């Protein structure tokens, strides 16, 4: 018996803000869990399982999902927590449905980095004997990736700033991300140093928010959703923990994950219409674009800005990085662009590539293909 | 997003919280040996059967997973292969002479003065022991001769454990529901919950969505500061993180008017008397803390048994 096909029935997300000072995690979570059913005809009673993503370290409590079960709608349901970006929670959920053990699943990811210290969160993931004491962490990893990338590609910091400015402008236009002052390329270049040669604004901006994605077996998805996007390929791959031991200038684990997803889907990156891609910095996004096969090594910038495949029309992760939810937001964005093309200008895309990443220097990568 | 969290006219400051976690980290044989050997100013590396040398020493290859065949001594010199600057500190990858991997460490130079391929040399800090920072960093050394990896006759015993502490700071948002609850405690000295959907009993703490039915909760309701114990345990053991002296009673109390249990404590003088009197069904009342209320659960100092 063939595995069942899984569709994205509905999505919901809060606005992404630098800080949701007047809302708790449970307020953000219950908001998206309540909203995601609107118009679908399904209710929480139809959901067989709930898989959620978040970080105990960012949340400041261990097994933090225990306190969020009610908001998640998980009372007396099968619930599981994935301590990785929400795109892996979706991967888990899709496989549960494909295996035939369930029909409808709710995937939720959330983040409130404003309550915590993001540098310490990353630091907690770094090897404690050799690397943490010398200050090698997420920022240094991205800085070194950037220094090498600029040296190899011949790009300038100005080129990077132009791309970042594009991404912020796209996010501002989407209306889903709270932006007080839209930075232009000059402001991005003039921002405080984050990790040379990257300024702080060349890093993904941590934001608070939550996202919910309702997935279902094919027949249910077709019944309850007008034009559901189907998940036709998935791949995941993790690189070595030691950033220094990874292949320089290439996100090889993202390339492996993408190859796995494209093999499932039966098509190649060039056949996609849109891509929603994560990146812990502008260099991370460029390296991801190249690893996903959307550009040659060192040539990600032109693909990022005006390639054949429309990349990060939502703005991507640079203006809004709800850590642990970023990849699931990419899935939500891409599925909406496919299912409801009338709500975003850009024709009628049929195929999408979705990418999520986790870990210091994007150690872990996950890729989905979506089709309508 | 529901409109309530956004528009509710409460703007409490955030709730500060700290997590302090003490650790005894176990470095294992390779890192333990490296850290024990820095006092001898030796950089311990691992040599694998393939001939590859990795510094600082590792118990297994980070790419292939195999174990090394021997510890060797790496030279103090090498080449800069990548660099960045974070918070004013230059950090680089150093390929020590004769080694096959990059060693992330501090570079003791200004960013403008460094370039890929430059020769570097370790600078030691005599005041630091048992840490990778016994190497203060690597300085630019254009004329440093190319060193060689050397065999080792013996090494110091690896360090067993390394004390470590992690401190994490948080500023938690209250949100509109907890916000009003703590506001009412501070301003009016009362516990406010919200009604369960379709009933008159209150959920404490209050929330927008009922945990069980996942429907919206009802209107606000004040609960009494008296209630009934529904679960309890006499705590007579000291554990890390306790805020009170033992013995005391941990109690789950359902306040009159509420349906949910709130966790608080009952102070006791005598274990025997506590065992006799404090049990599920016992009626209790809140003893409020003297002085100005702060809008916290600790505004109730403790609960006490209602005699008779």
TrEMBL record, chain A:
Superkingdom to which the source organism belongs: Bacteria
SUPFAM superfamilies in the cross-refs: Thiolase-like
Describe the location of the Thiolase C-terminal domain by residue ranges. Answer: 235-365
Pfam families (alphabetical): Thiolase_C_1 (PF22691)
Task: Report what the protein is called.
Answer: Thiolase C-terminal domain-containing protein
InterPro entries given for it? Thiolase, Thiolase-like, Thiolase_C_2
UniProtKB/TrEMBL annotation, chain B:
Q: Which SUPFAM superfamilies match?
A: Nucleic acid-binding proteins
Q: Which residues form a coiled coil?
A: none
Lineage top rank: taxon: Bacteria
Q: Which residues form the ChsH2 C-terminal OB-fold domain?
A: 220-288
Which PANTHER family does its entry note?
BLR3430 PROTEIN
Name this polypeptide is given? ChsH2 C-terminal OB-fold domain-containing protein
């Amino acid at each position: 018996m063939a595995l069942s096909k899984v569709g994205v029935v509905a999505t919901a997300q809060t606005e992404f803000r630098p800080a949701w000072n007047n809302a708790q995690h449970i307020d953000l979570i219950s908001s998206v869990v309540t909203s995601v059913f609107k118009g679908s005809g399904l209710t929480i009673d139809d959901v067989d399982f709930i898989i959620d993503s978040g970080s105990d370290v960012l949340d400041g409590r261990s097994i933090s999902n225990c306190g969020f079960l009610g908001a998640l709608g998980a009372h007396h349901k099968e619930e599981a927590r994935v301590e990785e970006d929400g795109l892996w929670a979706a991967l888990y959920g899709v496989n549960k449905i494909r295996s035939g053990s369930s029909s409808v699943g709710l995937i939720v990811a959330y983040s409130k980095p404003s309550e915590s210290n993001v540098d310490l969160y990353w630091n907690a993931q770094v090897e404690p004997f050799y690397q943490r004491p010398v200050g090698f962490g997420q920022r240094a990893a991205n800085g070194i990736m950037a220094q090498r990338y600029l040296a190899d590609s011949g790009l300038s910091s100005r080129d990077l700033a132009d791309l970042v400015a594009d991404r912020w402008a796209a996010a501002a236009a989407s209306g889903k991300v709270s932006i007080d002052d839209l930075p232009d390329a000059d402001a991005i270049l003039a921002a405080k140093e984050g990790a040379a040669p990257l300024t702080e604004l060349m890093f993904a901006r941590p934001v608070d928010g939550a996202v919910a994605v309702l997935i279902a077996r094919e027949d249910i998805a077709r019944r309850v959703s007008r034009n559901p996007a189907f998940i036709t390929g998935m791949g995941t791959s993790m690189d070595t923990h030691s950033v220094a031991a990874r292949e320089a200038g290439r996100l090889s684990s993202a390339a492996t994950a993408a190859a796995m997803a494209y093999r499932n889907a039966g098509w190649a990156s060039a056949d996609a219409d849109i891509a929603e891609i994560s990146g812990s910095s502008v260099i991370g996004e460029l390296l991801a674009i190249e690893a996903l096969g959307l550009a040659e090594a060192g040539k990600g910038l032109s693909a990022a800005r005006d390639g054949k495949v429309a990349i990060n029309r939502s703005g991507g992760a640079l203006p809004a990085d709800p850590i642990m939810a970023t990849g699931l937001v990419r899935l939500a964005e891409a599925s909406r662009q496919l299912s409801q093309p009338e709500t975003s200008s850009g024709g009628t895309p049929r195929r999408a590539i979705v990418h999520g990443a986790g870990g210091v220097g994007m150690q872990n990568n996950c890729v989905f293909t979506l089709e309508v | 997003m529901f409109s309530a969290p956004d528009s509710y006219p409460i703007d409490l400051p955030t709730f500060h919280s700290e997590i302090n976690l003490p650790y005894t980290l176990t470095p294992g044989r390779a890192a333990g040996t490296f850290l024990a050997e820095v006092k001898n100013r030796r950089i311990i590396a691992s040599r694998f059967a393939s001939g590859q040398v990795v510094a600082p020493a590792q118990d297994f290859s980070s790419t292939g997973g195999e174990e090394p065949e021997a510890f060797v001594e790496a030279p103090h010199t090498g080449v800069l292969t990548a660099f960045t600057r974070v918070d004013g500190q230059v950090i680089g990858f150093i390929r020590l002479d004769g080694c096959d991997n990059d060693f992330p460490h501090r570079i003791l130079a200004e960013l403008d003065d460094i370039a890929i391929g430059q020769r570097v040399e370790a600078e030691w800090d005599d005041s630091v022991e048992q840490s990778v920072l016994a190497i203060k960093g690597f300085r630019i050394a254009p004329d440093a001769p190319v060193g060689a990896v050397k065999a080792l006759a013996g090494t110091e015993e690896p360090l067993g454990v390394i004390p470590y502490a992690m401190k994490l700071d948080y500023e938690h948002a209250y949100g509109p529901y907890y916000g009003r609850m703590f506001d009412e405690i501070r301003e009016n000295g009362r516990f406010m919950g919200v009604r369960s959907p379709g009933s008159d009993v209150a959920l404490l703490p209050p929330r927008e969505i009922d945990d069980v039915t996942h429907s919206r909760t009802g209107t606000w309701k004040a609960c009494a500061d008296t209630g009934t114990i529904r679960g309890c345990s006499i705590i007579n053991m000291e554990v890390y993180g306790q805020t009170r002296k033992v013995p005391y009673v941990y109690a789950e109390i359902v306040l009159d008017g509420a349906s949910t249990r709130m966790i608080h404590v009952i102070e006791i003088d005598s274990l025997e008397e506590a065992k006799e009197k404090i049990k599920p069904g016992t009626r209790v009342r809140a003893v409020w803390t003297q002085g100005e209320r702060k809008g916290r659960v600790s505004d109730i100092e403790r609960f006490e048994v209602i005699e008779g």
